[in-house]
Amino acid sequence: MTNLTIHHKAIGLGLRQEFFNTLLAQTDIVDFIEIAPENWLGMGGKRKHLLNQYLQKLPIVLHGLNLSIGSIAPLNIKFIKSIKAFMREYNILIYSEHLSFCSDAQGYLYDLLPLPFHDKTIKHVVMKIKQVQDIIEQPLVLENISYYAAPIQVIKEIDFLNIVIQESGCQLLLDVNNVYVNSINHGYNPYTFIDQLPTNKICYIHIAGHCQKTDSLIIDTHGEDVNSSVWQLLQYTYQTHGFFPTLLERDFNIPNLLSLQQELSTIKSIHNRCESKVFE
Questions:
Q1: Which fold is adopted by the domain 11-278?
Q2: Beta strand segments in the chain, E
């Protein structure tokens, strides 16, 4: 299996069924792709052949949906071991998930729900992260999620995130759009939030679109073009922390690949602007 690495200025795209074959014929427009392992585990036939074709051309990272790291229910050890086996089979080096929970004792809830920003939650989730990392034998990469309610919030979101990262040894999938969405919905400064993140723990970045319902309410849809305010926050992130692989997410209202390519080009333009400022 080809071992392809992801450089710090790599630009990626979440692989979607709407452009499975189209992107395969134009892999030069991206540097890496991201897949949800739940949609590929155990697949054979044409699906497995397609994955192998992509692997010969591009690095692939995993972005999971069902780990439910913050749930009070025990981890699904069989599932985690299947993720590890999948990564080994296809020589995939990154497994990311969400700092959230999506299941309870009754089963899956089919949504990413926020954890209480509380000391007891930190202890619980750190223990589970370490358990996952012991199984997969590498750091787990966790994404800061968007949320609309903050139950039992004792400490700030940024402090909760930083303590979990520090105490667990995990890495961060920094979703810049989620930082912006939460800053509007919960009334904080997104630039200050970015300032307080640990540079050495950022693994890669997500960028996506959202829906502005009112001046004080944003819904994180991944179904619209990236907002200009989010592009500005991405540029600030690069200026503050340096370049990291950056992936465009689009899950709904998926346009043709040409339209997505224009947004991918915007990431490259921001790279160029940041570099030009260094030499001013």
A1: TIM Barrel (3.20.20)
A2: 11-14, 32-35, 60-63, 95-98, 101-104, 107-113, 141-143, 171-175, 202-207, 211-214, 217-219, 246-248
